[in-house]
């Protein structure tokens, strides 16, 4: 069996998923691969405030994004962790930070020393030794790789940002790296009879777009993987006590909190992004 070299990639759907895929492949694969993204302004995307985890910094680094430019373009703020409220019982609050507490010594994790001190009568909280905990509840943030000359790492962080603005920002980068965007709606998908693989998609205006590799970023519509290839949606509702979401805007709070709040309610939970 001869290997088929991929020379053209077609992404169906834009939004955050589509433009992340386009920007990453354009950056990593270089100009030898033709990348085309098809999206329609008439089809809305799920563009809400996003609360990320530190791996977003790794992605942005791979994409070659300047962090200050990224924050300005997406109306971003910084995030040191997630505060969980009322999950164990009403009134309980716990801040899950992105960084470690204390410093590991002699091949032992810091919490082992803390547990030993508790056993000997100390009433100090583990979070008394967490730089992230102190900074978050002081509404402070600063880029800090390491604490002075110690072995203690600095602040690990992520972001809150507007997902719609992030997609626009990535689109600019992707197009600058050669990605071609086509405005239009996909109305038909052609398959290779011998293999069942996708060979091309047809647009509402009659144009046909062919490719060697197709990526489905059409969201819940699943134009390629679902409607064309027949891969059924797996319903996990019976495992999920909360299987729906409502995104709403709210008034800005001051000061802006450098963490996300996740609050449990009787029949739902609420995520607040600042």
Describe it.
The protein has 274 residues and is α/β, with parallel strands linked by helices. It has helices at residues 15-29, 55-62, 67-74, 110-119, 131-137, 163-176, 223-228; strands at residues 8-12, 34-39, 49-51, 77-79, 81-85, 93-97, 158-162, 180-183, 186-191, 198-203, 208-210, 213-216, 260-264, 269-272. Strand 5 and strand 6 (93-97) form a beta hairpin.
Summarize the structure in short.
The protein is of the alpha/beta class. Helix content is 25%, strand content 23%. Helix 1 (15-29) packs parallel to helix 6.
Q: Which helices and strands appear, and what pairs or packs with what?
A:
Layout: E1 8-12, H1 15-29, E2 34-39, E3 49-51, H2 55-62, H3 67-74, E4 77-79, E5 81-85, E6 93-97, H4 110-119, H5 131-137, E7 158-162, H6 163-176, E8 180-183, E9 186-191, E10 198-203, E11 208-210, E12 213-216, H7 223-228, E13 260-264, E14 269-272
Parallel strand pairs: 1-2, 1-12, 2-8, 5-13
Antiparallel strand pairs: 3-7, 4-7, 5-6, 9-10, 10-11, 13-14
Helix pairs in contact: 1-6
Shape: elongated
The averaged pLDDT comes out at 90
User: Counting H and I runs of at least 4 residues, what is the number of helices?
Assistant: 7
Helix-strand pattern, N to C?
EHEEHHEEEHHEHEEEEEHEE
Number of strands: 14
Radius of gyration: 23 Å
Strands of the widest sheet, in order across it, are 8-2-1-12
Name the helicity range: 10-25%
The biggest sheet amounts to: 4 strands, parallel
Unreliable spans: none
Approximately what portion of the residues adopt beta-strand conformation?
Answer: 15-25%
Structural class from helices and strands?
alpha/beta
What separation lies between the terminal Cα atoms?
A: 54 Å
């Amino acid at each position: 069996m001869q290997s088929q070299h991929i020379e053209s990639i077609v992404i169906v759907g834009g939004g955050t998923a589509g433009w992340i895929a386009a920007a990453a492949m354009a950056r990593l694969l270089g100009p030898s691969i033709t990348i085309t993204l098809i999206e329609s302004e008439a089809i809305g995307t799920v563009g809400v405030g996003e609360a990320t985890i530190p791996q977003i910094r790794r992605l942005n680094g791979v994409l070659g994004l300047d962090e200050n430019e990224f924050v300005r373009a997406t109306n971003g703020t910084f995030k040191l962790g997630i505060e969980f409220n009322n999950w164990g019982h009403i009134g309980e609050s716990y801040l899950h930070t992105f960084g470690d507490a204390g410093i590991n010594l002699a091949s032992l994790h810091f919490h082992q020393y803390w547990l030993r001190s508790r056993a000997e009568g100390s009433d100090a909280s583990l979070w008394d030794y967490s730089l992230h905990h102190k900074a978050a509840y002081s509404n402070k943030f600063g880029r800090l790789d390491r604490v002075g000359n110690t072995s203690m790492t600095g602040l690990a962080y992520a972001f809150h940002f507007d997902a719609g603005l992030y997609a626009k920002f990535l689109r600019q980068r992707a197009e600058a790296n050669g990605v071609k965007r086509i405005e239009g709606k996909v109305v038909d998908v052609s398959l290779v009879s011998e293999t069942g693989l996708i060979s091309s998609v047809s647009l509402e205006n009659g144009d046909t777009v062919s490719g060697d590799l197709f990526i489905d970023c059409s969201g819940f519509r699943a134009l390629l993987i679902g409607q064309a290839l027949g891969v059924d949606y797996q319903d996990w509702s019976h495992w999920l006590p909360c299987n729906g979401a409502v995104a709403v805007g709210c008034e800005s709070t001051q000061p802006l909190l450098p963490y996300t709040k996740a609050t449990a309610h009787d029949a739902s939970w609420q995520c607040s992004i600042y």
